[in-house]
Design brief:
Elements lengths: L7 H14 L3 H8 L35 E6 L14 H5 L7 H4 L23 E4 L4 E4 L3 H5 L5 E7 L5 H10 L9 H9 L9 E5 L25 E3 L17 H22 L2 H24 L6 H7 L9 H13 L4 E5 L9 H25 L6 E6 L3 E2 L16 E2 L3 E6 L7 E3 L1 E2 L6 E3 L2 E2 H11 L9 E3 L2 E3 L15
Parallel strand pairs: 1-7, 1-8, 4-12, 4-15, 5-6, 5-7
Antiparallel strand pairs: 2-3, 4-11, 8-11, 9-10, 13-14, 16-17
Helix pairs in contact: 2-8, 2-9, 8-9, 11-12
């Protein structure tokens, strides 16, 4: 397919033209715009024309519904059977073997494939219908239930991958093997940043839930210029590593050093034409600006007691999911393009009832507070919020099934995610699974379909946002993906 905008070759040509007109190159632009304020005194300053922080698209392919995305990634695979996909027949058939006609030869993980039996496990938790949408939500998520009419549940997600690393990599980069750009990097590359004083792509990880590896390549730039990689913000006094000046280095000394370094790098960039040199110049300047902008956005002292109460007691503990949700709202206010929160700990092969209670207690109020806070500030209209993991859980018990305990193995055939805001139908349920919750019954949605839909809400034709690498054009959705028009207003 012929790309609809510039590829690497054309970009090199425009670069030479650019340097012919501006001797100081990108470094000069960065210095001239350092810590600018606009006429109203806001710290949100769009990158100037010619800045590498501007996207390759002159404008979106069509009018966007979303200006920014907050992706709440529940790493480990939340159990849809215990949260959102109510199956009364599963409870009635408790303890009976999963019929082979339902499984139909599906491959299982090495953790349960050698079980002699696969006893069906209904949920221990009570389900009720909420709001005008009458969406089913379990009592594990009472706050989520209160906002059921704000959410669009997709109950027919499916994926190709049955193990965590390829499945999480697939969700974040569109391919199961490492090395591809992440979704946030694609958006940064296509649309650029909205605020030159903060990264266009920020990652927050719940600090007390690191029980499975989450590699930085999940928010990496892959083969795109490194300026488009995600920047991880950590809880505590040092949110971005190596951002502070080392001991003995003054702010003016740092400024003088960057000025001279920019001159040398610009000269080298003009000489060899390597775009990565320009990315490095821009990253140094962004780091300098972030020395002021990051402490400002991380400082929660100006929030009201009402806001603290909305997010719950954990909001004052840096690095918790609640605190990260409040930071996500603050970053959204600063027009950060893509904000991704990771909350690991959903991999419940055993002792699921005990463990999932803790997980839901971690995220339920924070999710409700985030949606409520965005809505009352007028931000939900152009902020797309996505919640979900990399796959679902089995309807049978992994290991021994007892009256008050069970576990669930990985299940890629069907699971649930929800979306809200930015032109997504509120109070809507799309897709369904069979009576035992093992297979999709109607309206299947693949990972690439979801990615195509997210890009569409940002005004991007997912087939047109491409990058030439090693002789072929790549895109987030690889060679497939259909926009889910039915979930849009």
């Amino acid at each position: 397919m012929k790309p609809l905008f510039c590829d690497g070759v054309n970009f090199d040509m425009s670069r030479r033209d650019f340097f012919g007109k501006f001797a100081m190159g990108i470094g000069g632009f960065a210095l001239m715009n350092l810590l600018q304020k606009n006429a109203q005194g806001s710290s949100i300053v769009a990158p100037p024309i010619g800045s590498p922080f501007r996207g390759v698209l002159q404008k979106p392919h069509f009018a966007p519904k979303a200006k920014r995305i907050i992706y709440l990634f529940m790493a480990g695979g939340p159990s849809q059977h215990d949260l959102f996909d109510y199956k009364p027949l599963l409870n009635k058939m408790q303890g009976q073997d999963l019929p082979e006609s339902v499984r139909a030869g599906q491959r299982l993980t090495g953790m349960s494939q050698h079980q002699a039996h696969y006893p069906l496990a209904g949920s221990m938790f009570k389900f009720s219908q909420y709001g005008q949408s009458r969406a089913w939500v379990s009592d594990l998520m009472p706050n989520t239930a209160k906002m059921a009419d704000e959410l669009c549940f997709i109950r027919s997600m499916h994926t190709e991958h049955i193990n965590h690393d390829p499945a999480i990599t697939f969700f974040n980069t569109g391919h199961q093997l490492p090395g591809r750009p992440s979704m946030g990097s694609w958006l940064s590359y296509g649309l650029g940043s909205l605020n030159q004083n903060l990264p266009g792509f920020v990652v927050l990880i719940s600090k007390d839930r690191i029980d499975q590896p989450l590699y930085s390549r999940l928010w990496g730039n892959g083969f795109l210029p490194s300026i488009h990689q995600g920047v991880q913000f950590r809880g505590g006094s040092d949110p971005v590593l190596f951002l502070k000046n080392p001991d003995g280095i003054s702010q003016q000394g740092r400024r003088n050093y960057l000025d001279r370094l920019a001159e040398l790098n610009t000269h080298q960039s003009q000489k060899v034409g390597d775009p990565e040199i320009e990315s490095r110049i821009a990253q140094y300047e962004m780091a300098y600006r972030m020395q002021t902008s990051v402490p400002e956005v991380m400082d929660l002292s100006g929030e009201t007691e009402e806001t603290y109460a909305l997010y719950g007691s954990d909001v004052k503990k840096p690095g918790t999911f609640a605190a990260n949700c409040l930071l996500a709202r603050r970053l959204a206010e600063q027009d950060v393009r893509f904000i991704q929160l990771y909350h690991p700990g959903w991999d419940q092969h055993g002792a699921l009832p005990k463990q999932i209670r803790k997980q839901c207690a971690d995220v339920d109020q924070g999710c409700y507070a985030l949606i409520t806070d965005l809505k009352r500030r007028g931000l939900l209209d152009d902020t797309l919020v996505v919640w979900g993991g990399e796959f679902g859980r089995t309807n049978y018990s992994q290991g021994k099934l007892t009256i008050d305990d069970y576990g669930r193995d990985h299940h890629p055939r069907c699971f649930t995610v929800w979306m809200a805001g930015a032109g997504i139908k509120p109070g809507y349920v799309y897709g369904s699974t069979d009576e035992l919750g093992y297979n999709i019954q109607e309206n299947p949605v693949s990972v690439h379909d979801l990615q195509a839909t997210i890009l569409h809400q940002m005004g991007i034709n997912h087939e047109a946002l491409t990058f030439k690498h090693q002789g072929r054009y790549y895109r987030l959705t690889d060679v497939e993906g259909q926009v889910i028009n039915a979930v849009m207003t």
